[in-house]
């Protein structure tokens, strides 16, 4: 059942990428709206005992990402970008909470330094062109950095997911403020592929982490304590 729950997101992703490659705007729009609900099924089919403390936050992050995918289609054209970024910003906050609700390790120092370099480079390129949106771009960039850094604390799955997440959002930012740097065919394909792959790997983190309440307690030795060896 758990393996089959991944089938919808695979199908919807293939359909969406095919629609983008074929230039079908209608099929691309509808399939994009279905991406995050299809991925959310992976979490929804989990038995209650397997969900853990990060589960509701992860589900909320997917819901906010769905808002970021869908809301721009319902607002005026000049508000589309803000609607998308607003939904994704909420999703990033929820992923940050989710990744801190379960036991984690330390993010590798090299990965941390690389994230900082990439974030600084993206901000240096986009902020001067953002105008009045510059403060929002900085806040969004810091949230993106935090998500990738915390994801990496959950092993290579999280590190790879964080890298794809930064790549996807970085391409979106460049497309919005420096389109001359990403002016090449089928850039949307790479944005979508990395976006879905990153979100899927974040879901894998949730699947691999256990609720602290379900962690079995350490076995107690049957040997009596030292003070009780002799009956007084």
Automatic annotation (TrEMBL):
It holds the Pfam family YhhN. It comes from the Bacteria. The chain crosses the membrane at residues 81-102, 109-127, 133-152, 159-177, 189-208. Keywords: Membrane, Transmembrane, Transmembrane helix. Residues 213-232 are annotated as: Disordered. It is a multi-pass membrane protein. It is found in: Membrane. Belongs to the TMEM86 family. This is Lysoplasmalogenase family protein.
């Amino acid at each position: 059942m758990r393996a089959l729950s991944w089938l919808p997101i695979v199908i919807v992703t293939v359909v969406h990428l095919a629609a983008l490659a074929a230039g079908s705007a209608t099929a691309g729009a509808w399939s994009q709206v279905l991406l995050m609900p299809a991925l959310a099924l992976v979490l929804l089919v989990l038995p209650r005992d397997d969900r853990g403390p990060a589960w509701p936050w992860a589900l909320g992050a997917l819901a906010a990402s769905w808002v970021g995918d869908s809301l721009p289609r319902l607002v005026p054209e000049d508000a589309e970008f803000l609607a998308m970024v607003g939904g994704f910003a909420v999703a990033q906050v929820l992923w940050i909470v989710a990744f801190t609700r379960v036991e984690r390790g330390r993010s590798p120092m090299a990965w941390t330094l690389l994230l900082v370099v990439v974030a600084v480079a993206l901000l240096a390129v986009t902020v001067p062109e953002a105008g009045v949106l510059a403060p929002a771009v900085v806040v969004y960039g810091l949230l993106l950095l935090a998500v990738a850094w915390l994801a990496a604390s959950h092993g290579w799955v999280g590190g790879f997911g964080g890298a794809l997440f930064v790549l996807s959002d970085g391409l979106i930012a460049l497309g919005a403020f420096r389109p001359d740097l990403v002016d090449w065919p089928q850039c949307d394909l790479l944005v979508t592929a990395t976006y879905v792959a990153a979100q899927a790997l974040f879901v894998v983190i949730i699947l691999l982490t256990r609720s602290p309440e379900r962690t079995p307690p350490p076995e107690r030795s049957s040997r009596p304590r030292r003070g009780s060896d002799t009956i007084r």
